[in-house]
Amino acid sequence: MLLLPGESGIRVEVRGGAELGRVPQLSLSDLTVTVAPYSSPEERETHFLNTVGSGYWHPSAEDEVRFDPDSGQALSFVLHIPETTAPPADAPIGSDAPAVLLLPRPRPRHFAIPPSKVRHVPPDGSFLTCLWETESPDDTIRIAENFTLLATGGRVCGWRLSDPERFLATDPPRHQPEPPDSELGRALGTYFRTVDAAAADKLDDEDPDLRRELESLRDSLDLDSGASTRRRSLVAAIDELITFFF
Fold first, then answer.
1. Nearest to 81 by CA among 177, 179, 170, 197
2. In whole angstroms, what is the distance from residue 148 CA to residue 140 CA?
3. pLDDT for 57
4. By three-state DSSP, how is residue 126 classified?
5. Are 48 and 103 in contact (CB under 8 A)?
6. For labeling, which of 75, 107, 168, 225 is most exposed (least CB within 10 Å)?
7. How far is residue 144's CA from residue 90's CA, in Å, rounded to a whole number?
8. Phi and psi at residue 192, in whole multiples of 5°?
9. What distances in angstroms separate CA 184 from CA 1, 167, 222, 230, one per listed residue?
10. Residue 112 and residue 65: Cα distance in Å, rounded?
11. Is 29 exposed, middle or buried (0-12, 13-18, 19+ CB in 10 A)?
12. Digitized pLDDT (tens) for each residue of the chain, 246 residues in all
């Protein structure tokens, strides 16, 4: 049994099984990673009403994990990406076999899971790690494609999305897959390390050096090569920051 983050004391069972057949979506507009069976607000509301777990039917600062009320299996995750950057976490040793989370009976209709506290993206952008605890993870639980939960001492302590650039949400959603883009991965890593909690004062002060960094990062991305649709998502996020703060 694993203890979920927060003060609710909720524990879940980890059992071998098929990973969720859902492709993660990384949204830069609201800093979330979503692994869920819906693609519209209406479908999301129906899903929420038919499941139990953490979160609210309207968007909130709370992390959301929803479970099937009958089987107890975790069906969806909406996890916030914190703005505070931390040193890299040690790579945990764990099985690569997929697993499912099961909420034991009696199943509460609602409990709270706070957002994680720190994030780390290496220079090559190969993964995004978010942690509730700074203690190094010692195990992994693969839930969905490239998406794993991290655990230590019988507690869920974080989560990791490998190759996050592959899962950048696009508007409108893309229907044809694009290849991996290592240059975009490096740019996304730079973006996360540049635009973090430490940069908040610089943004408020309209710091010219920060603006030049953002413009240089934006201009480094050739929108006619690589994963052009995903590249446009990162460029749009940078442009939105520049327009809002400068």
1. 197
2. 6
3. 84
4. coil
5. no
6. 225
7. 21
8. -65, -35
9. 38, 11, 10, 8
10. 9
11. exposed
12. 999 999 999 999 999 988 899 999 999 999 999 999 998 999 999 999 999 999 998 888 999 999 999 999 999 999 999 999 987 766 666 666 789 999 999 999 999 999 999 999 999 999 999 999 988 888 899 999 999 999 999 999 999 999 999 999 987 776 667 899 999 999 999 999 999 999 999 999 999 999 999 999 999 999 999 999 999 999 999 999 999 999
Q: Which two tokens stand for residue 242?
A: 């520049």
What are the structure tokens assigned to 84, written together?
């505070």
Side chain identity, residue 17: G
130: its two tokens: 């978010």
Structure tokens at 5: 């983050």
Q: How many residues does the chain have?
A: 246
Instruction: Please give the structure tokens belonging to residue 16.
Output: 């071998």
